[in-house]
C-alpha cells in the first residue's frame, strides 16, 4: 500500500513533535543554567582544581545537571572580584577578604594569630561562627555567600636571613596581602610590602622584598620556593587568610528553590571542609618539597615564641574593641575558639 504525500508529511511532523517532547523530557541539560565563574587563581593551583573545580562538579551532580559552573578567565584583578560579582559582570567568583579590608571587618576575627595549627578545625569553626554571629551583619549585602574558610597557619619565610630573635625581623620588607597579615607584619617590626601572590617570587628573588608571610602550601604552589632559604614556623600560625566564594544575588534568585537547596547542600560547611582538606594536604606536601629544594625549616620556641606572642597579643583586643555593636565580638571569638577545640 502506498501512502499519500500529505499523509506521509503529517506523520513525519507528528513523529518529530513526539521525539522532540521525549528529548526535552529526558535531557534537562537543554534547560540548564550556566553560572560564569571568574577565576583569577592559576588554573593548576589547588584552589582552582580541588576547591573551585570540585565544587563545580558537586553543584552539577546535586542539581542533576540543571546548573553548571563555567570557570572562565578572570574578568578583573583579585581585589575587584567582590564588585564584579555584585555588579553582575561575573556570576560568581573566589574572593580573599584581606584584599578589600575596608569592606570586611568581621572576617579578621578568624584570621587572628595562634588560633589553630591546621585549616580544618579553624574553617569548620569559622563557618559555624559565621552562621551564629556574622550572618546578619550585612557584610555580604548584594551577593550570596556560598561558603568561606581560612587557609592553614601562615609562617615567616625569608630569602636568606635566619630568624633567631625578634630583632632579626626588624625592618625586613615582607610581602603581605593586606588585612591581618599587614597588621601582624607591622607588629613584628617588619615593613609590609604589598604584591600579588603571582608576583611574590619575582619581588623576593630580585631583593625587592626580603621575604613573605604565607602558608607553606602557597610558598610551594605559587613557586616561590626557589627564592626562599629560611622558614620559621610559628605554632598556631601568624595569621590565616579568610577566603570564600560568592554568587551574584540576582543570579542566585533566578534559580529554583529546589536547585538553591541542592547547591546549599554542597556549599557552606561542606565547602569549608572541602577547602580545608586541600589546604592541610597541600601544606604537608609543600613543606616536604621545600625541604627537598633546600629551604631550612625551624620552629619558633622559647624566648622567641614568647616575644612574638607578646607583640601580637594586641590584635585580639583591637579586633574586639573595633566592633560597632552589630555583633558581640568577644562572644563570637570565644565561640570560635570553642568550636576549634571541638573540631580537633
Layout of helices and strands:
Layout: H1 5-26, E1 33-38, H2 46-62, E2 67-72, H3 81-86, E3 92-96, H4 120-134, E4 143-150, E5 154-158, E6 173-176, H5 180-187, E7 191-194, H6 200-205, E8 211-215, H7 216-221, E9 230-233, E10 242-248, H8 249-254, H9 257-265, H10 269-292, E11 296-299, H11 302-312, H12 314-321, H13 329-343
Parallel strand pairs: 1-2, 1-3, 6-7, 6-8, 9-11
Antiparallel strand pairs: 3-10, 4-10, 5-8, 5-9
Pfam families: DctP (PF03480)
Signal peptide: 1-31
Keywords: Signal
Query: Secondary-structure element sequence?
Result: HEHEHEHEEEHEHEHEEHHHEHHH
Shape: globular
Going across the biggest sheet, name each strand in turn.
7-6-8-5-9-11
Q: Count every beta strand, where a strand is a DSSP E run of 2 or more residues.
A: 11
**Share of helical residues:** 40-55%
What is the CATH class designation of the domain at 154-239 and 283-343?
A: Alpha Beta
Structural class: alpha/beta
List low-pLDDT spans: 1-31
CATH architecture of the domain at 154-239 and 283-343: 3-Layer(aba) Sandwich
Look at the structure and name the CATH superfamily of the domain at 154-239 and 283-343.
Answer: Bacterial extracellular solute-binding protein, family 7
Distance between the termini: 80 Å
Rounded mean pLDDT score: 90
Largest beta-sheet characterization = 6 strands, mixed
Remind me, CATH topology of the domain at 154-239 and 283-343? D-Maltodextrin-Binding Protein, domain 2
The proportion of residues in beta strands is 15-25%
User: How many H/I helical runs?
Assistant: 13
Question: C-alpha Rg, in Å?
Answer: 24 Å
